[in-house]
Every structure is written in structure tokens, then in C-alpha cells.
């Protein structure tokens, strides 16, 4: 007695083709989803980069302003005041002194 399969081989091939088509469709959907995620991430990164660039510009401007102010204060300070300030910055002091009101040239408080 010859063995005959309960299904036709051509039916099996059709099922494979249908399965192959669904795999391709699934692959396409996955690729579309990945593209969507990539686009959203790229948008978020670009937005964050713009925010960081703006913060950098603000910090650079603030730094320049503080450097100009520092230069001005150094030019207005007396040699005694500069020496006193430098001594406060020296690492030899174990504990920092309490902040005092800075004196303007001429000995008056600012």
C-alpha cells in the first residue's frame, strides 16, 4: 500500500507563499515603525540641541560679562584691597572667613 499524504504539496506551497507574503508585510510594518521612532528621536534630539546651544550662548555671554566686571573691579581696587583679596584665596587658610561688605576706593562701603 502506497503512502499518500493527507494534503496536496501544492496546497502547502500556497500556504508558504501566503506565509511569505505576511512575513514581508510584517517586515514592512516593522520598518515603518522603526522609521517613525527614528524620526521622533531625531526631532527630540534636534530640539534638545537647540536648547543646549541657547544655554551655551547665554553662559558665554554671562561669562564675558563677569570677566569684564572682574577686570573693572580689579582696576578700581587699591593695592591693599587686592592683597587682602589674594590672601583670602590662598590655600593656606584652612577655614574661610565670614563674607564682609567690599569696600569701594576711598574706604566707603558699597
UniProtKB/TrEMBL annotation:
Main localization (coarse): cytoplasm
Keywords, ordered alphabetically: Cytoplasm, Nucleus, Phosphoprotein
Subcellular location: Cytoplasm; Nucleus
Pfam families for the chain: TSC22
Signal peptide range in chain numbering: none
Keyword Transport attached: no
GO biological process, one term: negative regulation of activation-induced cell death of T cells
Gene3D superfamilies assigned: Single helix bin
Similarity comment: family membership: Belongs to the TSC-22/Dip/Bun family.
Protein name: TSC22 domain family protein 3
Name of the gene encoding the protein in the UniProt record: TSC22D3
Amino acid at each position: 500500500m502506497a503512502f499518500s499524504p493527507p494534503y496536496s504539496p501544492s496546497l502547502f506551497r500556497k500556504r508558504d507563499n501566503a506565509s511569505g507574503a505576511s512575513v514581508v508585510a510584517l517586515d514592512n510594518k516593522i520598518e515603518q515603525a522603526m522609521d517613525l521612532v527614528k524620526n521622533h528621536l531625531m526631532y527630540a534630539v534636534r530640539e534638545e540641541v537647540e536648547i543646549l546651544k541657547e544655554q551655551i550662548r547665554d553662559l558665554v555671554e554671562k561669562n564675558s560679562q563677569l570677566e569684564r566686571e572682574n577686570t573693572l573691579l580689579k582696576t578700581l581696587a587699591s593695592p591693599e584691597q587686592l592683597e587682602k583679596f589674594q590672601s583670602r584665596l590662598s590655600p593656606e587658610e584652612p577655614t574661610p572667613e565670614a563674607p564682609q561688605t567690599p569696600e569701594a576706593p576711598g574706604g566707603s562701603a558699597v
